[in-house]
Design goal:
heterodimer, A: 219 residues, mainly alpha, Fumarate Reductase Cytochrome B subunit, two-stranded antiparallel sheet, 7 helices, 5% strand, elongated, B: 529 residues, alpha+beta, nine-stranded mixed β-sheet, 15 strands, 14% strand
Chain lengths: 219, 529
């Protein structure tokens, strides 16, 4: 085992501010959807808009970061070991089987994560962002006082936005839960907070059921 | 140490910056401020009519006053003779009917039904003298009643059932010398008391507006800008701006809030965007009939009950309004009424005498427009419901004869006999009557435009943007955020969400039991405690 600096400063800032914004957008968004009452419709709408602009800015920064650092390659999906990863979460981990993949700074995401996160970036986020922008600028005026976005019925825009929101909610539930499946319950969350994570050595091809107790001793 | 200083300075700068960015004084609404300045000064008359010798002569008949007026204002009578206040009708194009004339002469209302055959009484609100029956000469300028609108003495009143002639108590000289720009009471004398009492018809026009505070009406409030009717309802050549859709049907010469307030009256862009689909009145008139109750229902079918001595009687409700009158039937009055909301594009159709109908309730006037109509907006509306006398064989609504001075003249209010009343009324308007009558449900639609509340009392977003029976719950054809959702998306979305939660929970439980069986939980507990 070794302590590895796996999440860089920007990465952590991006993750946590995005998490906070998505939580806040879900809260205000579902209030606008009349799922519950908390801030009041008017304030919820105003804050939802501000948060959405902040999220857009943040996503802009993160896209820049991913491409300049080459981190985008982390999300290239592979199907090798995808099945093994699914088997691990459904069966393997109850038999104390080893992780089928090794996490490292070079390869932070297991195949299932890469697939899901890519889905997040290519499906869920675009659905809510594009429908959100259409929603926000629906029947507004351009510089020449000509009405824009009047051909798409508002209900289609709203439906797409709601579908995206439900997908994201479901993602959050599972994502938050999956953070507890590291070496200990809090290993992964601590890593995302501090950047440092205790990982198996990359060259070590297998580990066995005795890993857990030894690791505890190390600490 | 240097680091601490740097951080303190930086922190302070950031806090100050944030304060500056997020704290904004509410800016002055300059457009509204200018309007207030404009209407703060009331126009004053450039002449004093009491100094004209012609108005100091003794007047024996009201027509002599009119003649005196016309010696100076020698073309004004032509304008009056063109006006709907005089003619009680306007020409309009109506789909399916072509060019028709629409007005009090031929449309029916949901209150005293119609003026035809009852002119002697109804002409109390005609701007002429002597319209006692349907033979009135609409070309005779001598019969124009200038005083009813221009009296400044508050002394002029029209006599009851005197065909539009002034009450005998009126001193015509006083009135003639006081004339000027119409005051609230000049308009209100008819428009407040139409239908036989204060606030019976409109719901948003009543005598309380003569002296009210801003909570009742921000425009007419005595402690506010104290505007009079004609400040907004301006008149070019006596053609007064503004439409009342109980008798009007076209979207011309209409008076709109944005004539003064503009199309972007709020500082909030999001609120301004409502302008294209939501009328100002919808949010800014949360309730009407704020001071005195208005009549919401009128059942003619209940009329005619007499007391043990065979006399007409009346009953009152808890607010002191007539809930029953033998001559008119049963009424429902309400105060502080929440309007109903309808799409309305400025066009209306009317039941005109002679129209056959077989769908009930009959809408004696119908506001046109729907969500897909680019000119339609959501308006607050008073809907007056009731029933009226109807001929099931000819399928015509019946114009009954109601008023007469004495018994034995077929008037319902004297003889309490619908058969006679219907026969006489229909004969007078030249329509057939089969001899059979029944009572059918009728509705009348009154867009609400007055009694604008202070902005603090305007509707909040939630009153419409809610799925829980909001104010616009009954309007369809459009997506209203907060009110609407797609049932399938809601169902599948919730299944997805709760399946995720359940899946996660089951997975966690399985891990917990697995750990328990290996006694790992205890070891972990020790470690983390």
């Amino acid at each position: 085992m070794e302590k590895v600096y796996i999440y860089k400063k920007f990465e952590r800032f991006w993750h946590w501010s995005q998490a906070a914004l998505i939580f806040f957008l879900a809260l205000t968004g579902f209030e606008i959807h009349d799922s519950f009452q908390l801030l009041g419709f008017e304030i919820a709408v105003a804050y939802h808009r501000i948060a959405s602009y902040l999220l857009l800015g943040l996503i802009g920064l993160s896209i820049f970061w991913h491409f300049t650092t080459g981190e985008w390659k982390q999300y290239i999906p592979t199907i090798s070991k995808l099945k093994a990863q699914i088997q691990y979460y459904t069966i393997g981990m109850f038999r104390n089987d080893p992780h089928p993949t090794i996490k490292s700074a070079r390869k932070k995401l297991n195949p299932l994560q890469a697939m899901v996160y890519l889905g997040f970036k290519l499906v869920m986020a675009p659905i809510v962002i594009l429908s959100g922008l259409l929603y926000m600028y629906f029947k507004t005026y351009d510089a020449n006082d000509i009405i824009i976005i009047s051909d798409i019925p508002l209900e289609y825009i709203a439906w797409a936005h709601t579908i995206g929101a439900f997908l994201l909610l479901s993602f959050i539930v599972i994502h938050v839960y999956m953070t507890t499946t590291g070496h200990t319950l809090t290993t992964n969350i601590k890593a995302m907070l501090t950047g440092w994570e205790i990982l198996d050595k990359e060259d070590k091809s297998t580990s066995n059921s005795e890993v857990e107790p030894t690791k505890e001793k190390e600490k | 140490m240097n680091k601490i200083i740097t951080f303190t300075v930086l922190g302070t700068v950031l806090i100050l910056l944030a304060l500056n960015l997020f704290h904004k004084e509410k800016p002055l609404n300059l457009a509204q401020y200018e309007l207030k300045q404009k209407y703060a000064v009331q126009p004053s008359s450039s002449v004093d009519h009491s100094k004209f010798t012609i108005l100091q002569e003794q007047f024996d008949t009201p027509q002599e006053v009119t003649e005196a007026c016309l010696t100076c204002h020698n073309e004004r009578h032509k304008e009056i003779i063109q006006s709907s206040h005089w003619n009680w009708e306007r020409l309009a194009y109506e789909e399916g009917k072509g060019i028709t004339s629409v007005g009090k002469k031929n449309v029916l209302n949901n209150f005293c039904i119609g003026a035809s055959s009852n002119e002697q009484s109804c002409a109390k609100c005609h701007i002429g003298f002597g319209m006692g029956n349907n033979t009135f000469d609409f070309e005779n300028a001598r019969n124009v009643d200038c005083m009813v609108c221009h009296d400044g003495s508050e002394e002029y009143i029209k006599g009851s059932a005197m065909a539009g002639y002034p009450d005998r108590s009126v001193n015509l000289n006083n009135v003639a010398q006081s004339v000027g720009r119409p005051n609230k009471i000049n308009c209100g004398a008819c428009h407040f008391y139409s239908g036989g009492g204060n606030n019976v018809k409109h719901g948003d026009l009543e005598e309380a507006l003569l002296s009210c505070d801003r909570n009742t009406d921000v425009h007419m409030a005595s402690n506010g800008i104290n505007m009079s009717c004609v400040d907004c309802h301006t008149a070019d050549k006596h053609q007064i701006k503004g439409k009342l859709y109980s008798v009007s049907s076209t979207d011309v010469n209409r008076l709109n809030c944005d004539d003064c307030h503009g199309a972007k009256p709020h500082h909030d862009e999001l609120l301004n965007r409502h302008f294209s689909k939501v009328s100002c009145q919808t949010c800014h008139i949360p309730t009407y009939a704020k001071e005195n109750a208005t009549k919401m229902a009128w059942k003619w079918s209940e009329a005619g009950r007499l007391d043990e001595n065979g006399n007409a009687f009346h009953e009152e409700d808890s607010m002191g309004n007539h809930s029953y009158l033998s001559i008119k039937g049963e009424f429902v009055w309400e105060k502080n009424v929440e309007p109903e909301y309808y799409w309305f594009n400025g066009q209306a159709t009317h039941y005109a005498l002679g129209d056959t109908v077989s769908e009930f309730p009959i809408q004696v006037n119908r506001l046109l427009g729907d969500a897909h109509d680019s000119k339609a907006k959501i308006y607050p509306v008073k809907v007056h419901r009731g029933d009226q006398i109807y001929d099931p064989e000819t399928k015509l609504l019946i114009q009954p004869r109601l008023y007469s001075e004495s018994k034995g003249d077929s008037a319902y209010w004297m003889d309490f006999d619908w058969q006679l009343s219907a026969t006489a009324g229909m004969k007078e308007v030249g329509l057939p009557y089969s001899g059979h009558y029944e009572f059918v449900e009728t509705e009348m639609y009154w867009p609400i435009n007055h009694m604008v509340s202070p902005k603090e009392q305007a509707l909040s977003c939630e009153e419409c943007h809610t799925s829980n029976n909001g104010r616009l719950a009954n309007l369809d054809g459009f997506y209203l955020p907060g009110r609407d959702s797609n049932d399938w998306i809601e169902l599948l979305g919730n299944i997805l969400l709760w399946a995720s939660v359940a899946g996660v929970f089951i997975h966690a439980l399985a891990r917990f039991f697995k750990a328990l069986s290996k006694n790992e939980v205890e070891s972990e507990d020790i470690k983390y405690d």
